[in-house]
Design a protein that fits this description.
By secondary structure, this protein is mainly α. The chain is built from six helices and two strands. The chain is globular and about 40 Å long. It starts with 10 loop residues before the first helix and ends with a helix. The model has no long low-confidence stretch (mean pLDDT 76).
């Protein structure tokens, strides 16, 4: 799934204070993804610092715009996939790191929990 046509998106582009779509859309995406990833760890203030902005309103507006463009469920799914562990720690016997594919059940469970939390927060904010 591709959201942008530009492979040269970088931190500099996210940090840049510009209102052109090629700068704002990736920034909106990053804000919404971080928020969906962990709502407690990535508060609006923390995300504002991460994208080098001084106020939380910018982040709130970015998240709202991203949800409008791509839908809340998109970010919840992406966040769920990214938090499910994919590697098993080295075993004591041979010290090898083993790749474990996340089961659909794990991804679905985390995604549903994230979605429920997001919907609860949205209802509370209204």
């Amino acid at each position: 799934m591709f959201f942008f046509d530009d492979p040269s998106i970088s931190k500099k582009r996210i940090y840049k204070r510009c209102r052109e779509k090629r700068f704002t859309l990736p920034r909106h995406f990053v804000c919404a993804f971080l928020r969906a990833r962990d709502r407690k760890r990535f508060s609006h203030r923390v995300i504002a610092k991460a994208i080098r902005r001084s106020d939380e309103t910018t982040v709130r507006n970015s998240i709202a715009r991203a949800h409008e463009l791509w839908g809340l469920q998109t970010f919840v799914r992406l966040a769920a996939i990214s938090v499910v562990p994919t590697f098993q720690p080295a075993s004591e016997r041979n010290g090898a790191v083993i790749h474990i594919r996340s089961t659909d059940v794990q991804v679905f469970a985390i995604g549903m929990t994230n979605l429920e939390n997001a919907m609860r927060e949205m209802r509370g904010a209204a």
